[in-house]
Amino acid sequence: MKNSNVAIAGIGLTEQAKSLQENNITVCIQAVKNALADAGMLMKDIDGISARWPGPGGTEFDSGVIDWSGVFGKSFRWVGDTYPQGVPGVLDAAAAVSFGLCETVIVFGGQAGILNRSELAEYTQPNNEFVRPWGLFTAAHFAMVAQVYFARFQPDRLKLSQIAVEIRNAGSRNPEAVMFGKGPYRPSDIVESPIICEPFHLLDLCLATEGASAVIITSLERALDCPHTPVRILGGGSEWHRQQYVDPARYDEVGAIGKDAFERAFNYADLTVDDIDVFEVYDINTWEIVRQFETLGLCSEGDGTDFLFENGISVNGRYPTNTDGGLLSFSHTGWGGPNLKVIEAVRQLRGTASGDQVNDAETALVTGAGSGAQYFNAAILAKN
Amino acid sequence: MSENNADTLTSEFWENIERKKLVRPVCNLCGNNFFSPQVVCPDCQSSDWIYEESNGNGKIYSYTVIHRPMGDGFPNPYIVVDVDLEEGWKMYSQLLNCEIDEISVGLEVEVIFEKHAERTMPFFQPRRAKK
Predict the structure, then answer these.
(1) pLDDT higher than threshold 90 for residue A28
(2) pLDDT for B77-99, tens place per residue?
(3) Read out DSSP for A109-140?
């Protein structure tokens, strides 16, 4: 923990639902207000902002992109707009605070009033001339990576389904999850749900929902004055292989994406994966969880399904994973979705989870993106 | 390709497809085949590349059978493929004229051209022994 002088001081979450009577701006503002209240701060304390942003100097207003300086009527010392949410947003903010570019950053994102309860979000189908005409969407890109793995290693389908079962049942128990009260699920429910894109069934795949979330990052010194125990950002790493969802994502290129990011994150944090108490990993589909545990080096390539089945990923298992219900069951708010992993990790470390709580969790691994997206990121968080 | 070609980067590809020719960028400097088209060769960053016709033969690197209606007259389910072309490049497409239980990683395929929504598109089908 030699390098850490930056911490998460506040988190904010709005209601998460299949559809909300809000819009992208109002729902994000609500998350910002909740995070400020959680951190015991006011907007005047914020001098860095990480959100989808054309900002001063930019004029293009693509869907979901807003001039937040205008919305909040203030100027900032630092803006993060490369990938302004989730792990990359938090890591960039930590670097900015650590280097003295600003003192306190708010990272936020979300969506509302756009899905209209449709089952396939428009943003999962980029309008690329070599992709869209053949009917690809996000889950299909991931499926084509998984198919090669399935052909080579033939994972046990019911054991794989147990992973979705554990995460979805955690969501069933979590009053704040979109899928609260649904289930409980058995492995047979997963494989009996409609197949969407082989090898994935409907219940293998993440949600598309609405809501927003916000995270406040500041110096450890400043965070110690805030109401909640600071959650320190101990290390992180990213891998950017290719632009997402344009050229084919291939298992032989991206099957081990994350290995370098994990090594970098753990080296910087001076920890090993055995030190991690809770795993908030990006569950865009069931198999992607297996892939990440293999990439973490906890088991060999091809053995992840058996490994997780034997060790357990529920709150009582050896590797408690996606304790809030994850993207499969808690929520997945499009561009704001990656933040949700950070929020749940902070709640686990504070001991204030709305659903399953890992006892005395001191360290958390948070990840974002995945093989089919051709980029990946990871961060290690810890209770002070 | 000339400079300032970004807006016409792929128009020559689609013009060839209309004439039922599958083409891909080939670098004049290093010989690299690549796809999708880029302003410069991804191996040597030369902008000196041209579209050359492919023989249209390849193998399925991966595929997924998609069970949801796509519309535009496509069948449900439909099969999306990532094809390794013989010249050493790859592209997404759909597999036609193929039974679901006939598909596998490594299946040999060939390009065919079909009109969809007023536009000719390259698809693939299983390669069968020629007469």
Answers:
(1) yes
(2) 999 999 999 999 999 999 999 99
(3) EEE-SS-TT-SS-GGGS---TTTGGGT--HHH
Q: Tell me the CA distances in angstroms from B109 to A105, A221, A343, one per residue in order.
A: 53, 62, 47
* Residue-wise pLDDT tens digits, A336-370: 999 999 999 999 999 999 999 999 999 999 999 99
Under an 8 Å CB criterion, which residues of A touch B? Answer: 120, 129-131, 133-136, 140, 143-145, 147-148, 151, 194-199, 246-248, 250-251
Q: Do A144 and B80 touch (CB under 8 A)?
A: yes
At B22-40, the pLDDT tens digits run 999 999 999 999 999 999 9
> How far is the alpha carbon of A10 from chain B, nearest alpha carbon, in Å?
41
Q: Is B23 helix (H, G, I), strand (E, B) or coil?
A: strand
3-class secondary structure per residue, A4-54: CCEEEEEEEECCCECCCCCCHHHHHHHHHHHHHHHHCCCHHHCCEEECCCC
- ipTM value: 0.91
- Of A118, A126, A104, the closest CA to residue A219 belongs to A104
**Nearest CA-CA partner of A321 in A382, A260, A277:** A277
| Spatial separation of the C-alpha atoms in residues A350 and A353, rounded to whole Å | 8
Q: Residue B78 corresponds to which tokens in the numbers above?
A: 């439909």
Q: Residue type for B115, please?
A: K
Which CATH number do you get for residue A97? 3.40.47.10
d(CA A321, CA B91): 35
**B5 phi/psi in degrees, rounded to 5:** -100, 10
Here the tokens at position A234 are: 């101990």
Q: 3-class SS at B128?
A: coil
Q: Which residues pair with B126 in a beta bridge?
A: B109
Q: Is the pLDDT of residue B121 over 60?
A: yes
Nearest to B68 among A130, A196, A246 (CB): A196
Asked, for residue A56, whether it belongs to a domain, the answer is: yes
Domains of chain B (ranges, CATH numbers): 6-53 (no CATH), 57-126 (2.40.50)
Residues of B in contact with A374 (CB under 8 A): none
The strand pair at A48-50 and B57-66 is best described as unpaired
Residue of B nearest to A251 (CA): B62
Assess whether pLDDT exceeds 80 at residue B4: no
Domain, as residue range, for A68: 6-116+207-383
- pLDDT over threshold 90, residue A234: yes
Q: Is residue A234 assigned to a domain?
A: yes
- Picking from A92-101, B4-13, B103-112, which range would have the lowest pLDDT averaged per residue? B4-13
What does the pLDDT read at residue A335? 84
Per DSSP, the residues of A332-362 read: --GGGHHHHHHHHHHHHHHT--SS---TT--
- Let me know if residue A92 belongs to a domain: yes
Residues of B in contact with A130 (CB under 8 A): 10, 35-36, 91-92
- Name the domain count of chain A: 1
**Which pLDDT value is given to residue A288?**
98
